[in-house]
Structure formats: structure tokens, C-alpha cells
Amino acid sequence: MIAFALENLYKHLFGLTQNSSNGASTVNQIVNMYLSRDIGVKYKETTDGDKTYIEILSNITGSVAEIGRKNSRNYRTSGSSSSGGSGSTNEEGDTSTEESRVRLVTRIIKKLVPDATAEGIAGIIGNFSAESNVTAKKYEADYATGYEYEKMESEPTAENLMGSWGAFASLYSISLNEAGYRGSDGKHWIGIGIGQWTGPRAEELLNFARSQGKSLWDFNLQFQFMNQESRADTFRRVASSSASASTNASDFMNNWEGVAYKEAERIEQANAWLSTIQDELQKG
To answer: What is the pTM of this model?
Structure first.
């Protein structure tokens, strides 16, 4: 963990003082652009009296050169993968039908995981079809709560949606795993997005969206998060699998979704969309 005063950063790097007319705004833009966006370094800004400090929250390896000397560094961008894929994606396309969304997701996964197979992608999409109809703009029980997307984008918790965990749980006729919904703040983070991230993973997805300055409901944003979160290795492994679509659907359900629910439907949807995925991959 590293902390430094912005006043010193201004002075040594740019010859500016924190109180100069353009010093603060110039360097704040640089800090935001390079630390939080381009090289994926997380940081926190705090103020103590008349001084502002930047605390680096990410682990950084490298060397520091004397001020004024040429120095080169290599950083791993946020979301980059060991499989050689791009750490970001900006695919666009029609999302009005499930087929068009399947085609869009196929292109996104292929960009993030270049060695992705049709069967691997089908296993993933089979799960997402069962979870959300392959829809990024989705939260758990939205159909029963008036589709409060704007409210849920600010904080997708049971408390924010319905006032309490008990009120949310009452929507179900089955018993829910309450512990699985609890976030770091003790609130209950309900399923959100195409993969219905729940609990701490839902909380992390919201924080990631905020750090990127993008909508929580953005397709590309959700897959960028998927490619770097705690289960990213499972995502890439299944995506590049040469096993059957059925096997991949079960694998993804057990090891990425972490559930044992609607397995037959997930397998059915994986096989139903396989030919569409193959067709989309042939276009690329």
C-alpha cells in the first residue's frame, strides 16, 4: 500500500502547486485517467487539513527512476487475461431479442477469450438463458417489484428494494440462503445482471461499474468484470473448453454460478443456442 501527498506530486512531476489555478484540476484528471482507468490501479483520495492524499490500493511492482530521467514501466491493465484476450470490449449490437443478445454475447466472449469454442460459449449462454434470458438489464424478482432498474442501479439490495430482507424473502415460496446474499456492509445484495451476481459478487460488480464510470446494466461492462473477478479463471476455462455444450453447461452451473438448480434447462438452452453461436463465430 502506498500513500503520497498530491502537493508533492504536483511539485515534482509538473512544477505545479496544489493551489495554483490549473494545478489541481490538471493533475486530478491525470490521476483519474491513468490510475483508475488506463492501468487499472485502484486508489482512494482523502483530505487531511489543507493536504490531499492519494492512497494506492492495488499491488504494484516496478522501479522508480530519479525525477527527470527516462523510465519505462509495464503494467497489467484491469481485466486483462492470461489467455491473451483484450482486457476490454466495446461490442455493439441489437439487444431486442434473445437471439440478438446471444450473438452479441458470443462476440464479446470471443474477444475476451480468443480461444473460446462454440461449445464453451454455449455452456455459458445456456446458464445465462436460464438465469436472465441473456439480459444484462436484469435484477432478481424484477417482474414482481415493478422493474425498479434506476433504484437498483444505485444499490441492488433487498433493503433498498423492499425495505428489509424479510419482505424480499417473502416473494419466494422456497427458503433462500440468506448468508449467500450478505455483502461486506451486512446488507443483502440480490442477484443482478446477466449472470445474476449475488452477495459480495454483486457488491463488487456495482463498485466496478462505478470505477469505470459506466452503467451497471452495460453488457460489455458486465463481461469485463466477469473476466477479472474471483471466478474469472472458471469463465475462461469453460469458454475455451472442447467438451460438449451439455457438459460445459453443467460445469459452469456448478463452478461459476455455484448452484444446483434448473440444470436440465441450462443444458437444453446450451444445445438450443449452439448452432446460432457457431453461425456467429463463422462470421468473425
So the answer is: 0.69
